[in-house]
Amino acid sequence: MKELISKEALHKKTPQEITSLLYEACLNNLEDAKDAIDQQNHVLANEKLQKSNDILVRLGAGINYEAGIIADQLDALYNYLAEKVIEANITKNEVIIEEVIQHIEALSSSWKDAMIKNKDSQPQLLKQKANAYEKNTLYEENQYEN
After folding, report:
1. 21: Cβ contacts below 8 Å, ≥ 6 apart
2. What are phi and psi of 39, to 5 degrees?
3. Could you write out the DSSP letters of every residue in 17-80?
4. CA-CA distance, 37 to 101, in Å (whole number)?
5. Cβ atoms within 10 A of the Cβ of 40, count?
6. Given 18, 39, 71, 83, which is the most exposed site by the fewest CB atoms within 10 A?
7. Could you read off the pLDDT of 10-56 as tens digits, one per residue?
């Protein structure tokens, strides 16, 4: 039942919100992997690092390549981070995991900021459209009064 609710909740999310959730999930898995390595639980570390890698692959698959050079650079960064996660998994190196975490945190923070700015600008745009409509409507009404 819990899984069904989660899937329903995901369907109500925007693609931008899903991307944000993927960043969070990736960070959680990387942190869990570091903890597992500290506890010498290499099986769990392997699991968590594989999930992190899967998330990075999904993030890469969701890139809008029509965005231009930024999309290409983001793709290259996701590929680099995926390679680092594989390297960290092979060597069980927490320093490499920390590097990936820092990059994902920066991406996540920037993504959240962009989402907030986008939400803030949307109501203003709607107000501008409404004002333009009202001006046209008022103009037309005044035109017919003469």
Report:
1. 10, 13
2. -90, 10
3. HHHHHHHHHHHHHHHHHHHHHHTT-HHHHHHHHHHHHHHHHHHHHT--GGGTHHHHHHHHHHHH
4. 15
5. 9
6. 39
7. 678 888 999 999 999 999 999 999 999 999 999 999 999 999 999 99
